[in-house]
Amino acid sequence: MNVTGFNPMVLTNEPDATIKLFEELGFERRHTKLNEVEMAFDEVRMKDSNGFHVDVVSGKLGLLERDLTIIRINVDDFDEAVERLKANGFRESKIISEYHTETSRYAFYVSPGGVIINLVQHIR
Description:
By secondary structure, the chain is of the alpha+beta class. The protein has helices at about 15-25, 80-85; strands at about 5-10, 30-35, 40-45, 55-60, 70-75, 90, 100, 105-110, 115-120. It is globular, with a radius of gyration of 14 Å.
């Protein structure tokens, strides 16, 4: 298994304010993904002049009590990455379960100490 991408992600009910903050810090919008499914999230991928990325993600169902900072890890072998996380005490999120689209597979995993990882594999 190889890590193919790694960046912070902010899950928020207030995406406009968060995007504005990162724009003020020198980030620009690079990609916007609007999802139309029931348990979906809209995502704005941002990048700065140094090549660093941050994703600003907003839930459509308003499940958040507060913003969450998450580590997004893209991998080339989703199943192997899941096994590694589980072997280190991570469990799949109870709120956001594994999900597949035509172009990706992802799930949120939480460590015993509360670290949240959004595990993603892009399907080419």
